[in-house]
Amino acid sequence: MKSFSCEHGGVACGAKVTGETDEEVLEKAIAHAQKAHGVDLTNSQTLARYAQSLVRDESPAAADH
Ligand SMILES: [Zn+2]
Known about the structure:
Layout: E1 2-5, E2 16-19, H1 22-37, H2 45-53, E3 56-57
This protein binds zinc ion.
């Protein structure tokens, strides 16, 4: 399982999206960023890369830390 948290990107936002694959998470993150932050992550390679780098592996058993 993969996850993306806005706060990992230094954004004061509690939003977190999860998915089975990087692509799925990224898609949700892009939709969230657009709706909640007015940022189009697909606009720039740098932003898209950055967002991708924030996608993390998450073990459902040990998600706590
Ligand atoms: Zn957010």
